[in-house]
Write a structure and sequence with these properties.
Elements lengths: L1 H25 L10 H18 L9 H26 L6 H28 L3 E6 L2 H13 L5 E7 L1 H5 L6 H8 L4 E4 L1 H4 L2 H12 L3 E4 H9 L17 H4 L2 H35 L5 E7 L5 E7 L20 H9 L6 H7 L3 E3 L6 H10 L12 E3 L1 H6 L5 H17 L2 H18 L3
Parallel strand pairs: 1-2, 1-3, 3-4, 7-8
Antiparallel strand pairs: 5-6
Helix pairs in contact: 1-2, 1-4, 2-3, 3-4, 12-14
Length: 435
């Protein structure tokens, strides 16, 4: 449902600007299909539509006022893009009236799409879950559904495995499903070993009840692979970057295009940061540090320096007192990461992938976390699924949680997921000022 509304929202934006261009051109001396006006209008509409999605339309923003503001701001993005092209070619490509009327005309369309999504969400019935899992897995599942769910679901009941096995001809699991109006049963590995539980679930499944293993449910509903449910053989899945010849080439092309777009802002921002650092905190412009890349090979990552030079190398805290005033602003906006464009250009990292960690931390985490080294079979990234889903972490438990999201990315890696991560990153930056 949401996917179709997003597509319709974008189509409506493009159609609006094209219609206004045709109407304006029909009454003036130029024809709409000549003089580069059609490509310019398509650029305006496309950038506006992409900006709308990046800002959270139609399904993230919660208020009408927010929808109107995001709609107008996306039109500003489109207008700036066309203005930049017009300045470069020295010809005014689109009349200001088309841009202005287009910006106003798409607001009702965005409001309509937003209302359709809101009404659909209100009418949707969440999947009602019965989890037959051990207590630790049950706690993890409850937290994930409350804080990290990708899809709507309600944990209605948790049951001990021993209680659901029953004795003789008893069917306690089936009775609980009927009493609590359960629509899906989730079983961990231990529950799947119980013949009685599996027999009850098989009968219920034949009657229409949905059933998932804990691992399958966490992947589909939460977007991560639980380490507690992993076995060595479960790691033998195809990774697009390794097993599909076209994907890594296409991904590399997009990486290089990103570098071409980002190098001019990097040079301009570098000059500003250098002057600001010279005035407030003497030291080098760039921060250089050894990180672990693909295949466990170390490389030197580049960032704008945000901390006092010669600081300790322990885990960085969110409000670390070593962070400089300029560095705090760079971190909040995430502009300190921009020099990694050079790392992408060198092929050391990609635009999307697991975030690279320090060498010492990786050695420590390899000893303490099972399967941690698996994350190094592909190139690390400037942004990633775990970074977006979990944010900043600075301890072992956080690293373990991130690993579960990174395994999900490895298992589902592809252009579609990469595009989603990039859009989510833009949304996060626009709405919260950084990751």
């Amino acid at each position: 449902m949401r996917g179709w509304i997003r597509i319709l929202s974008a189509i409506g934006v493009v159609a609006t600007f094209l219609a206004l261009g045709v109407l304006h051109g029909s009454g003036h001396e130029y024809f709409f299909l000549t003089d580069g006006r059609l490509p310019a209008t398509l650029l305006l509409a496309s950038v506006t539509a992409i900006g709308s999605y990046a800002l959270g339309l139609p399904d993230v923003i919660a208020t009408r006022r927010g929808v109107v503001a995001a709609s107008l701001l996306s039109s500003v993005f489109g207008a700036l893009s066309v203005s930049a092209v017009a300045l470069s070619v020295g010809v005014p490509l689109i009349p200001r009236s088309v841009i202005a009327w287009g910006a106003l005309s798409i607001i009702p369309w965005h409001l309509l799409c937003w209302r359709v999504v809101a009404d659909a969400d209100a009418a949707a019935t969440a999947t009602r879950i019965l989890a037959v899992v051990n207590p630790l897995a049950g706690d993890e599942l409850a937290f994930a559904l409350a804080n990290e769910a990708e899809r709507s679901a309600e944990l209605v009941a948790r049951a001990d495995i021993a209680d659901m096995e029953g004795t003789g001809r008893g069917r306690p699991l089936a009775e609980l499903v009927a009493d609590r109006d359960i629509t899906m049963v989730v079983l961990d590995q231990e529950a799947q070993l119980s013949e009685n539980i599996v027999a009850q679930v098989a009968d219920l499944h034949a009657g229409g009840l949905r059933v998932r293993s804990l691992s399958m449910f966490m992947e589909e509903w939460i977007g991560k692979v639980p380490i507690s449910e992993l076995e060595r053989t479960s790691l033998f899945f195809d990774v697009s970057e390794l097993h599909r010849s076209a994907y890594p080439r296409i991904k590399r092309v997009f990486d290089l295009l990103f570098c071409v777009i980002s190098l001019p802002p990097l040079v301009a921002l570098g000059s500003v940061v250098w002057l600001a650092n010279a005035a407030t905190s003497r030291g080098p412009l760039l921060f250089r540090q050894q990180r672990v890349g693909k295949g466990g090979e170390p490389f030197e990552i580049l960032k704008f320096r945000t901390m006092q030079p010669n600081g300790d190398s322990h885990w960085t805290e969110v409000d670390d007192d070593r962070i400089t005033p300029v560095g705090r602003l760079l971190r909040r906006s995430h502009l300190d990461e921009l020099p990694q464009v050079v790392n992408i250009l060198r092929g050391e990292i990609s635009l999307v992938g697991p975030r690279p960690e320090q060498v010492d931390y990786v050695e420590e985490l390899n000893d303490k976390l099972p399967f941690y080294n698996v994350r190094h079979i592909i190139r690390p990234g400037l942004t990633g699924w775990a970074q977006l889903k979990l944010g900043y972490t600075n301890d072992l438990s956080g690293a373990a949680e991130k690993l579960q999201y990174e395994l999900f990315y490895l298992r589902h890696q592809g252009l579609g997921l990469d595009a989603r991560i990039i859009i989510m990153t833009l949304r996060h930056l626009f709405q919260r000022g950084g990751m």
